[in-house]
Give the backbone structure.
Amino acid sequence: MANSEYNPDVLNCIANLSNDEVFTPPVLANQVLDMLPQELFRSPDTKFLDPFCKSGVFLREIVKRLDMGLANLIPNRQKRIDHIMHHQVYGMALTELTALLSRRTLYCSKAANSPHSVSYFDDEQGHLFYKAIPHTWVKGKCKYCGASQEVYDRGSQSEQYAYQFIHTDNPEQLFPKDMKFDVIIGNPPYQLSDGGNAASAMPIYQLFVEQAKKLNPRFLCMIIPARWYAGGRGLDDFRTTMLNDNHISHLVDFPDSRDCFPNVNIAGGVCYFLWNRDENCNCEVINISAHETSKTIRNLNQFPVFVRANKSISIINKVMQNDFESLSTEVCSSNPFGFRTYIKGENKPFENSLLLHTSDGFGYVSKLEVVKNQDAIDTFNVILSRAISGGNKPGADGKYLIIPATMRVMKPGEICAETYQCIGHFDNENEAQNLRIYLSTKFVRFLMFQAITGIMVNRDSFIFVPLQDFSHPWTDEMLYKKYGLDENEIAFIESMIRPME
């Protein structure tokens, strides 16, 4: 055996434990810290805050940089560490357990007033705070985070997940008077269960971003899911704000979350960003994958949604010129005929009944019950399931499928439940079949991918897909030629989108 010592970083081990809490690996924390001006770590006056500590990794890595940066200014190591701990580094833990873990990481002791702490404080919390607080219930929901009272109002003996940082209208009151932070940084919680079916959950990371901005730091860095780019439940206002915020100077994007968190596969990927209070600028967008890194400087609000891949911009620009008309104009809104998913219909047809396509197969409902899109009842339509097959996650080959699990032509006298999107209204079946073939091309699925960051298809998923003449079928080769795509652009599409089985 080679004479070597294996000394693993325990925070690397913790970061690989679970998908429930996405802990930050030390290498990722340092990549985020690298975006900051490094002179911040050579100043004894810079103040850092991580308001959502889980393992304490950001604070630990900040202290290591300050320890090196202040070595000449404060030569005595203990005095230097005391100054850093007491005057420069602050944190707020998410739970009582993560408070103990983060203090152990930062102070080398779960209690800051322990003789084992690397810097002594008069109380056990030091400058890494945790306070259990209740939700504020209004009509069954928390007025601050939207948590379900049915799910989270479960007594003082259980964790409430009422995160202190976002459960206040005035976050500055959480800190000593006149406390100003130069840098707010971290990896906030991503979502909360909303009490719906199965794994139904609502995003909350945007609340932490908005709350941090209220403290008006010089710099703000956060790791968050990328679903806000295009869609995401309740994220429309947040997306508009982010895309029009000229203070975002860097956005680092991971379409495959495993390139960021090695053992966590998050649909739509993740990103981290640098917000600079004192700078108005275009944003450097950095796409990172296992195969390559792409960088460019551009406006985030070039399109109604954020197009993540730098290489996609030229393709979209070619498609959208020359009197572009989007296929989205032919897509019905969600729940096209007014039948919710749980409606299955009767087992057998009856007088004036229509065939209803459901998630479980077929049923029959009365024509009189149709409350929307009555004009589509007697036409041919293409329907596709709203859920993406494969969950908008790359396969083993790194490519995306990006196709609804079910796609078929619906004949006159047939309708569908809200499980499906409905497109078309054709007078003949041939045109509807040609639309179905068009939707299966890599070209179309690539353009849909630019407007999808979650796992569901909706009308906005088709904003970059051009409307065509469906009197004949379309192939990828025909579409590449029509829009003048060059070899590199074609290769990029082919490298991203898997063929349909």
The two ends are 48 Å apart (CA to CA). The first strand starts at residue 48 and ends at 53. The chain has a mean pLDDT of 89.
